[in-house]
Protein backbone atom coordinates (compact mmCIF):
# COMPACT_ATOMS: atom_id res chain seq x y z
CA UNK A 1 0.00 0.00 0.00
CA UNK A 2 2.99 2.29 0.24
CA UNK A 3 2.99 3.34 -3.41
CA UNK A 4 -0.31 5.17 -3.53
CA UNK A 5 -0.32 6.74 -0.10
CA UNK A 6 -2.02 9.76 -1.11
CA UNK A 7 -0.54 13.08 -1.36
CA UNK A 8 0.95 15.52 1.01
CA UNK A 9 2.44 15.25 4.46
CA UNK A 10 3.33 11.73 5.40
CA UNK A 11 3.39 11.35 9.09
CA UNK A 12 0.20 9.40 9.65
CA UNK A 13 0.16 7.82 6.21
CA UNK A 14 1.39 4.49 7.53
CA UNK A 15 -1.85 4.28 9.50
CA UNK A 16 -4.15 4.55 6.49
CA UNK A 17 -4.71 0.80 6.00
CA UNK A 18 -6.46 0.71 9.37
CA UNK A 19 -8.83 3.62 8.90
CA UNK A 20 -12.46 3.79 7.81
CA UNK A 21 -12.05 6.35 5.02
CA UNK A 22 -12.36 9.31 7.40
CA UNK A 23 -9.37 11.53 6.87
CA UNK A 24 -8.59 14.71 4.99
CA UNK A 25 -5.57 16.34 3.43
CA UNK A 26 -5.61 20.14 3.37
CA UNK A 27 -3.30 22.46 1.44
CA UNK A 28 -3.50 26.19 2.19
CA UNK A 29 -1.50 28.80 0.28
CA UNK A 30 -1.68 32.48 1.20
CA UNK A 31 -0.26 34.71 -1.55
CA UNK A 32 0.83 38.33 -1.20
CA UNK A 33 0.86 40.73 -4.13
CA UNK A 34 4.67 40.80 -4.14
CA UNK A 35 4.83 37.04 -4.80
CA UNK A 36 5.82 35.93 -1.30
CA UNK A 37 3.51 33.83 0.81
CA UNK A 38 2.84 31.08 3.32
CA UNK A 39 1.85 27.41 3.15
CA UNK A 40 0.08 25.20 5.68
CA UNK A 41 -0.16 21.46 4.96
CA UNK A 42 -2.39 19.32 7.17
CA UNK A 43 -3.37 15.68 7.54
CA UNK A 44 -6.43 15.36 9.75
CA UNK A 45 -7.43 11.93 11.08
CA UNK A 46 -9.57 13.27 13.93
CA UNK A 47 -12.75 11.65 12.61
CA UNK A 48 -11.05 8.28 13.12
CA UNK A 49 -9.12 9.17 16.28
CA UNK A 50 -10.69 6.49 18.49
CA UNK A 51 -9.88 3.74 16.00
CA UNK A 52 -6.39 5.11 15.34
CA UNK A 53 -5.62 5.28 19.06
CA UNK A 54 -6.64 1.63 19.44
CA UNK A 55 -4.57 0.55 16.45
CA UNK A 56 -1.46 2.29 17.77
CA UNK A 57 -1.52 0.03 20.83
CA UNK A 58 -0.78 -2.94 18.53
CA UNK A 59 2.44 -4.06 16.85
CA UNK A 60 0.82 -4.94 13.55
CA UNK A 61 -2.60 -5.33 11.92
CA UNK A 62 -3.39 -7.45 8.85
CA UNK A 63 0.29 -7.73 8.02
CA UNK A 64 0.99 -3.99 8.30
CA UNK A 65 3.45 -2.81 10.94
CA UNK A 66 1.93 -0.10 13.08
CA UNK A 67 4.29 2.88 13.43
CA UNK A 68 5.01 4.22 16.89
CA UNK A 69 4.46 7.84 17.83
CA UNK A 70 8.24 8.17 17.89
CA UNK A 71 8.50 6.90 14.30
CA UNK A 72 5.78 9.26 13.12
CA UNK A 73 7.49 12.18 14.85
CA UNK A 74 10.80 11.16 13.31
CA UNK A 75 9.32 11.28 9.80
CA UNK A 76 7.81 14.68 10.54
CA UNK A 77 11.17 15.95 11.78
CA UNK A 78 12.86 14.68 8.63
CA UNK A 79 10.36 16.56 6.46
CA UNK A 80 10.98 19.73 8.48
CA UNK A 81 14.75 19.34 8.17
CA UNK A 82 14.45 18.99 4.39
CA UNK A 83 12.27 22.10 4.13
CA UNK A 84 14.71 24.16 6.19
CA UNK A 85 17.42 23.37 3.62
CA UNK A 86 15.20 24.14 0.61
CA UNK A 87 15.84 27.25 -1.47
CA UNK A 88 13.50 30.15 -0.78
CA UNK A 89 11.81 28.42 2.19
CA UNK A 90 11.85 30.00 5.66
CA UNK A 91 9.96 29.99 8.96
CA UNK A 92 9.37 26.22 8.94
CA UNK A 93 7.19 24.98 11.79
CA UNK A 94 5.39 21.75 12.58
CA UNK A 95 2.84 20.45 15.03
CA UNK A 96 1.67 16.95 15.88
CA UNK A 97 -1.50 16.42 17.91
CA UNK A 98 -1.58 12.79 19.02
CA UNK A 99 -4.84 13.27 20.90
CA UNK A 100 -6.82 14.15 17.78
CA UNK A 101 -4.29 12.76 15.25
CA UNK A 102 -3.69 15.93 13.30
CA UNK A 103 -0.30 16.86 11.83
CA UNK A 104 0.65 20.16 10.23
CA UNK A 105 3.67 21.73 8.59
CA UNK A 106 3.80 25.44 7.82
CA UNK A 107 6.43 27.58 6.10
CA UNK A 108 6.95 30.77 4.12
CA UNK A 109 8.29 31.12 0.57
CA UNK A 110 9.99 33.91 -1.39
CA UNK A 111 8.30 32.80 -4.61
CA UNK A 112 5.54 30.21 -5.01
CA UNK A 113 7.75 28.32 -7.48
CA UNK A 114 9.95 27.47 -4.46
CA UNK A 115 7.38 24.86 -3.44
CA UNK A 116 7.51 22.99 -6.77
CA UNK A 117 8.62 19.37 -6.28
CA UNK A 118 8.93 19.77 -2.50
CA UNK A 119 6.25 17.18 -1.75
CA UNK A 120 7.66 14.78 -4.36
CA UNK A 121 11.15 15.06 -2.87
CA UNK A 122 9.95 14.60 0.72
CA UNK A 123 7.98 11.52 -0.30
CA UNK A 124 11.03 10.14 -2.11
CA UNK A 125 13.06 10.40 1.08
CA UNK A 126 10.42 8.20 2.72
CA UNK A 127 10.61 5.80 -0.25
CA UNK A 128 7.03 6.68 -1.24
CA UNK A 129 6.23 7.53 -4.85
CA UNK A 130 4.17 10.64 -5.51
CA UNK A 131 0.78 10.29 -7.20
CA UNK A 132 1.00 13.58 -9.09
CA UNK A 133 3.16 16.49 -10.12
CA UNK A 134 2.12 20.06 -9.36
CA UNK A 135 3.81 23.22 -10.60
CA UNK A 136 2.91 26.59 -9.12
CA UNK A 137 3.63 30.02 -10.54
CA UNK A 138 2.62 33.62 -9.94
CA UNK A 139 3.03 36.47 -12.41
CA UNK A 140 3.30 39.73 -10.46
CA UNK A 141 2.71 41.83 -13.56
CA UNK A 142 -0.47 40.17 -14.74
CA UNK A 143 -1.39 39.12 -11.15
CA UNK A 144 -2.16 35.57 -12.25
CA UNK A 145 -1.73 32.54 -9.98
CA UNK A 146 -1.37 29.18 -11.72
CA UNK A 147 -1.31 25.57 -10.61
CA UNK A 148 -0.53 22.92 -13.21
CA UNK A 149 -1.53 19.47 -11.98
CA UNK A 150 -0.73 16.17 -13.66
CA UNK A 151 -1.67 12.77 -12.26
CA UNK A 152 0.99 10.07 -12.57
CA UNK A 153 -0.41 7.12 -14.54
CA UNK A 154 1.36 4.45 -12.50
CA UNK A 155 -0.46 5.64 -9.37
CA UNK A 156 -3.79 4.53 -10.84
CA UNK A 157 -2.27 1.20 -11.91
CA UNK A 158 -0.90 0.52 -8.44
CA UNK A 159 -4.12 1.70 -6.81
CA UNK A 160 -6.12 -0.81 -8.85
CA UNK A 161 -3.87 -3.60 -7.58
CA UNK A 162 -4.99 -2.98 -4.01
CA UNK A 163 -7.42 -5.26 -2.22
CA UNK A 164 -10.99 -3.90 -2.11
CA UNK A 165 -10.78 -3.27 1.65
CA UNK A 166 -7.64 -1.17 1.14
CA UNK A 167 -9.21 0.79 -1.72
CA UNK A 168 -12.23 1.47 0.48
CA UNK A 169 -10.04 3.49 2.84
CA UNK A 170 -9.96 6.27 0.24
CA UNK A 171 -13.68 6.35 -0.59
CA UNK A 172 -14.53 9.14 1.84
CA UNK A 173 -11.07 10.67 2.13
CA UNK A 174 -10.84 14.22 0.85
CA UNK A 175 -8.26 16.66 -0.47
CA UNK A 176 -8.92 20.37 -0.08
CA UNK A 177 -6.91 23.22 -1.54
CA UNK A 178 -7.44 26.77 -0.30
CA UNK A 179 -5.71 29.72 -1.95
CA UNK A 180 -5.91 33.15 -0.28
CA UNK A 181 -4.93 36.48 -1.81
CA UNK A 182 -4.53 40.16 -0.88
CA UNK A 183 -6.32 41.28 -4.04
CA UNK A 184 -9.79 40.38 -5.21
CA UNK A 185 -10.25 37.27 -7.38
CA UNK A 186 -11.82 38.14 -10.72
CA UNK A 187 -11.85 34.63 -12.23
CA UNK A 188 -10.97 30.99 -11.58
CA UNK A 189 -10.73 28.57 -14.51
CA UNK A 190 -11.38 25.30 -12.65
CA UNK A 191 -15.17 24.73 -12.68
CA UNK A 192 -14.96 22.67 -9.48
CA UNK A 193 -13.48 25.55 -7.50
CA UNK A 194 -15.45 28.04 -5.44
CA UNK A 195 -14.64 31.70 -4.84
CA UNK A 196 -15.34 32.94 -1.31
CA UNK A 197 -17.86 35.69 -0.54
CA UNK A 198 -14.97 38.03 0.22
CA UNK A 199 -13.60 37.37 -3.31
CA UNK A 200 -10.17 36.87 -1.77
CA UNK A 201 -10.00 33.07 -1.55
CA UNK A 202 -10.57 30.07 -3.82
CA UNK A 203 -11.36 26.58 -2.50
CA UNK A 204 -11.51 23.22 -4.25
CA UNK A 205 -12.45 19.96 -2.52
CA UNK A 206 -12.25 16.51 -4.11
CA UNK A 207 -12.13 12.83 -3.21
CA UNK A 208 -8.60 11.49 -2.99
CA UNK A 209 -9.61 8.34 -4.86
CA UNK A 210 -10.78 10.50 -7.78
CA UNK A 211 -7.40 12.25 -7.82
CA UNK A 212 -5.51 8.96 -7.85
CA UNK A 213 -7.72 7.60 -10.64
CA UNK A 214 -7.43 10.78 -12.70
CA UNK A 215 -11.16 11.48 -12.53
CA UNK A 216 -10.59 15.06 -11.44
CA UNK A 217 -7.93 17.62 -12.28
CA UNK A 218 -7.14 20.36 -9.76
CA UNK A 219 -5.23 22.58 -12.19
CA UNK A 220 -6.33 26.17 -11.94
CA UNK A 221 -5.56 29.65 -13.21
CA UNK A 222 -6.71 32.40 -10.87
CA UNK A 223 -6.82 35.99 -12.06
CA UNK A 224 -6.58 38.77 -9.50
CA UNK A 225 -7.78 42.33 -9.84
CA UNK A 226 -5.04 44.67 -11.06
Automatic annotation (TrEMBL):
PROSITE patterns, per database record: PROKAR_LIPOPROTEIN (PS51257)
Leader sequence segment: 1-22
Keywords, sorted A to Z: Signal
Name of protein: Lipoprotein
Amino acid sequence: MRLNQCYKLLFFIALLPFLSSCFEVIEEISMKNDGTGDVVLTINLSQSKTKVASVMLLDSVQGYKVPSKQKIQQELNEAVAYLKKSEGITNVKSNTDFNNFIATISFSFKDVSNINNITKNILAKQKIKATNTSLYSYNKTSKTFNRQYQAIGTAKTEFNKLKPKDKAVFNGATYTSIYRFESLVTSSTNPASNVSKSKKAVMLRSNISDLINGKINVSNSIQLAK
